[in-house]
Structures are given as C-alpha cells and as structure tokens.
Amino acid sequence: MTFQFPYPEVNASLNAASAVLIMAGIFFIRRRQVDLHRACMLSASFTSSLFLISYVTYHARVGSVHFMGQGVIRRVYFTLLLSHTVLAVVIVPLVLRTLYLGLRGRFETHKRLARWTAPLWMYVSVTGVVIYWMLYRSPWRT
C-alpha cells in the first residue's frame, strides 16, 4: 500500500484556515489592533497561496473530479461552483492590491478596497470548503 497525499482534505483545510484568519483579521481591525490584523491577513494570504499551489498540483495529477449528484442538488452544486470559480479568479488581484496598499501605508484606499475584498475572499474560502464537502464527503458522491 502506498501513501497518497490527501490533497482534497489539505485544500479544504487551507480554505477553512484562510476563512478563520480573514474573520480574525476583520475582528482585530475593528478593534484597532493593527498589528494583529496585519498578522492575520498576511497569514490568510500565505494559507491561500499554499492552497493554490496544492490545488494546481492535485488537479495537474488527477484532472477534474466529477460531481455525481442528480436533480436539484446538481443545480445547486454547479451554481455554487460557478460563483466560486469566477470570484476565485477575481479575488487574486483584489487581495494582492489590497495587501499592497496596506503594506505601503495607503490606508484610506486600502480600507475602501478591503470593504469589497474581505467579504469576497471570505466567500471564496468558505465555498471552497462547501464544494469539497459536496464533492468528496456528501451522500451524493457515489
């Protein structure tokens, strides 16, 4: 028996960690704890980057995994997947720009952009976990 790296589980865990870190970052900035906010958001960026590397590696090796559910749940899954995928593409430059502005001390512009970036990034992270569950752990997978 050979060891198989658990890419889907790692990917879901990284998405979940990113979501928790984003929430913590928002919590800290609302309390004006800038250093903790910065640490959380940089950590969320790091975990999201690890996710992207792991995700691309997995799908380069395995290809796409087909959703086996039928009926209404199939429409729900593909609607969620479409919104997740589109926003996952959009969020990368938004996160990079928002981080750049914050690290450069351009806080007013950072704050205006972060009001859009944070909830979209959170959505992408959380829906990534939901998609993982629907694809690999739900009763519809077989």
Sequence-ordered SSE layout with sheet pairings:
Elements: H1 7-30, H2 34-62, H3 72-103, H4 107-137
Helix pairs in contact: 1-2, 1-4, 3-4
How confident overall, as mean pLDDT? Answer: 94
Radius of gyration: 17 Å
What global shape is seen?
elongated
SSE ordering? HHHH
Share of helix, binned: over 70%
Low-confidence residue ranges: none
Number of domains as seen in the coordinates: 1
How many E strands? 0
Short descriptors:
single chain; 142 residues; mainly alpha
Structural summary, described in words:
This protein has 142 residues and is mainly α. The protein has one domain. 82% of the residues lie in helices and 0% in strands. The protein has four helices and no strands. It is elongated.
Short description:
The protein is mainly alpha-helical. The protein has helices spanning 7-30, 34-62, 72-103, 107-137.
